[in-house]
User: Which sequence fits this backbone?
């Protein structure tokens, strides 16, 4: 049985299933996209710029955005991740893997004003391609 923190692996799988080509580990970065911190790191890179704070410059989450939670399930920063299905004023409907650390996936509503760190919106034209030298940070 799969146990532990696999919410980010769920999001990675969903992205790949809809044709978004992503690296397992972004070149020359420390973590793999199977962890929430790696998603946040990747989304804030200058070449991606996919990270947004809720309501920052009028930003509102949309279907397909990835939500990163802050201290939702633990005392750790950016501790959970999911996929936005809909945004309805003060709440979002999300699909999550390892929902509430109960080792199952599901769809539920979350309050937009509770424990949301920000969102990742991957541009429609994004395609991962790397032809440099791969030197992962250890």
Assistant:
């Amino acid at each position: 049985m799969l146990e532990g923190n696999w919410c980010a692996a769920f999001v990675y799988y969903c992205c790949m299933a809809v044709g978004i080509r992503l690296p397992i580990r972004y070149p020359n970065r420390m973590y793999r996209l199977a962890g929430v911190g790696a998603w946040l790191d990747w989304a804030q890179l200058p070449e991606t710029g996919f990270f947004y704070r809720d309501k920052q410059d009028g930003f509102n989450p949309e279907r397909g955005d990835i939500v990163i939670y802050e201290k939702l399930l633990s005392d750790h920063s950016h501790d959970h991740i999911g996929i936005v299905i809909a945004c309805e004023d003060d709440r979002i409907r999300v699909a999550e893997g390892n929902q509430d650390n109960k080792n199952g996936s599901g769809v539920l509503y979350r309050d937009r004003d509770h424990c949301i760190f920000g969102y990742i919106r991957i541009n429609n034209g994004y395609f991962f391609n790397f032809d440099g030298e791969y030197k992962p940070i250890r």
Notes: DSSP finds two helices and six strands in the chain. The longest helix spans residues 7-17. The mean pLDDT is 88.
